[in-house]
């Protein structure tokens, strides 16, 4: 494999301006998103992850990832098979 000298990178004024514009755009989007969450939180529907019921939060996560848990049987024959004591 051939070795080459490191390439020198130069920071140009256009690059700085582009970075600043993208950063400002992201900040405004973040502010708008936070404002929507605050306004939606007063209705009770905007704050999805802030519910106090852990079962509903667990159910919401299961629905989100597509997990459908199967109920576990509670009888001994299903746990130990056909063993007799």
Automatic annotation (TrEMBL):
Predominant place of localization: nucleus
Protein name as catalogued: Anaphase-promoting complex subunit CDC26
GO biological process: one example: cell division
Keyword terms: Cell cycle, Cell division, Coiled coil, Mitosis, Nucleus, Ubl conjugation pathway
Cellular compartments annotated: Nucleus
Listed InterPro entries: APC_suCDC26
Role played: Component of the anaphase promoting complex/cyclosome (APC/C), a cell cycle-regulated E3 ubiquitin ligase that controls progression through mitosis and the G1 phase of the cell cycle. The APC/C complex acts by mediating ubiquitination and subsequent degradation of target proteins: it mainly mediates the formation of 'Lys-11'-linked polyubiquitin chains and, to a lower extent, the formation of 'Lys-48'- and 'Lys-63'-linked polyubiquitin chains. The APC/C complex catalyzes assembly of branched 'Lys-11'-/'Lys-48'-linked branched ubiquitin chains on target proteins.
One Gene Ontology term, aspect cellular component: anaphase-promoting complex
Pathway: Protein modification; protein ubiquitination
Residue span of region Disordered: 34-85
Polar residues compositional bias, start-end: 73-85
Tagged with keyword Nucleus: yes
Family, similarity comment: Belongs to the CDC26 family.
Domain of life the protein comes from: Eukaryota
Pfam families: ANAPC_CDC26
């Amino acid at each position: 494999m051939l070795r080459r000298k490191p390439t020198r990178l130069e920071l140009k004024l256009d690059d700085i301006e582009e970075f600043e514009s993208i950063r400002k755009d992201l900040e405004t989007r973040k502010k708008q998103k936070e404002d929507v969450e605050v306004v939606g939180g007063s209705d009770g529907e905007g704050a999805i992850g802030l519910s106090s019921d852990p079962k509903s939060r667990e159910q919401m996560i299961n629905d989100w990832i597509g997990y459908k848990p199967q109920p576990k049987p509670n009888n001994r024959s299903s746990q130990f098979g056909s063993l007799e004591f």
